[in-house]
From TrEMBL:
Protein name: selenide, water dikinase
EC numbers on record: 2.7.9.3
GO terms classed as biological process: selenocysteine biosynthetic process
KW Kinase (keyword) present: yes
NCBIfam families linked: selD
Catalytic activity: hydrogenselenide + ATP + H2O = selenophosphate + AMP + phosphate + 2 H(+)
Amino acid sequence: MSVSTSPPAPSEEALLKLLAGLEPDRADATRKAGDQASEFVQQLPGPRLGVGMDCCVIPLRHGGLSLVQTTDFFYPLVEDPYMMGRIACANVLSDLYAMGITECDNMLMLLSVSQKMNDKDRERVMPLMIQGFRDAAEEGGTSVTGGQTVINPWIIVGGVASVVCQPNEFIMPDGAVPGDVLVLTKPLGTQVAVNAHQWLDQPERWNKIKLVVTKEEVKEAYQEAMFSMGTLNRTAAGLMHKFQAHAATDVTGFGLLGHANNLAAQQRNEVAFVIHNLPIIAKMTAISKACGNLFNLIQGTSAETSGGLLVCLPREQAAKFCSEMKSQSSGAGGSGAWIIGIVEKGDRHARIIDKPRIIEVPPRGSKAANQDNSSTSPSPSPNLS
């Protein structure tokens, strides 16, 4: 399967500006102020969460329950259609997992079939993509009961995830306090790994990075990125409850810093997130630098797909969270968790220090992956002590 070229993406700021029109206090000015339905929703008890974060949380009319719902979709980025479907499903579910929700009641699949595909390719590729999506949903304890399929210039894959929750089943992403520790549950660098793999067949591109990485290392990093993106964040969601997490988000298209800023802006307390450590798939930092910082990887704005959870935890719980994440991960060099920063008093923004510590995460199956990885220690950097 060849990876289709997606149209240019607008900036994070531009997207959030567009979404602002959905905010209740900015909606259609012609809406009647006395709209009874609107007044009813505002009077419902319980927390609600809207535009700008991972999920919407809507209090229901009955029994103190809330509907938690999310949707996401994107363009293919790996060659294996089965894995692409799996990654798409994991990416959708991550929005629920970021709120500590471990169960999903229902999923819908959104699928756009490219009008450029011939019959043979379509009949081979699309069923595999659907199967990957469905298998990941089943692993997450849910099922796909429908969706929408259209013809489009580009392949697009995604879905909708919905669950009805009691208050104790989810963690609102607004409770970080000064002294908390920031933990990340998957390494960064998936976009770099995917692009580097495509460049193996593009001499002009490959010549820019061949001095810092071998073809075998690129292939290993690509496999690691696929495995990471296709891994559900369900384990981390469960551990958020066990270790009293105060807030979390998943790291996707806006990059680590973009999503950290979004999360910081949601906090009830006046806090700031300071990131000291960056766990990155091995060799991806070198590739990014060799490309003239094309991806802004170290700056934290490199896009990720189905990335890890960024979790705010009490300092005394962070190391135990990381240790249990690692013990529950399968495979040599598998995903664990890394302490990457702190929460301090501030102005609800996030920043990465000037010279962050780069934690090289070896791909599973590589020689380096079999060595003991100490990145989950309680104090991976003097800056966090």
